[in-house]
Amino acid sequence: MAYTICEPCIGTKDTACVDVCPVDCIHPRADEEEFEAAEKLYIHPDECIDCGACVPACPVEAIFANDEVPEEWANYIDIDAAYYADE
Fold first, then answer.
1. How far is Cα 51 from Cα 30, in angstroms, rounded to an integer?
2. Residue 3 pLDDT
3. Confidence class for position 66, pLDDT limits 50, 70, 90
4. Which residues contact 85 (CB under 8 A, 6 or more apart)?
5. Hey, which CATH number is domain 3-83, 3.30.70.20, 2.60.120.10, 3.40.30.10, 3.40.50.880?
6. What is the pTM of this model?
């Protein structure tokens, strides 16, 4: 099970979660070209190792395990996956 970044990240894009991720599965990073245009940060569902390190690092409480995503934000599971679909 992966984690998903939900609506509270929109407009915030705090990269504390990026800094603590041991497998670099959260993008775009601040040094990546896509960062400015991205609405939020995204967790790669296939690369996430389910460690949960990102959850306490998020200052806006936007990150949830997929089976704990609030119902009103369930679409963010697909949004994160779609971000990586063209890889």
1. 22
2. 97
3. very high
4. none
5. 3.30.70.20
6. 0.94
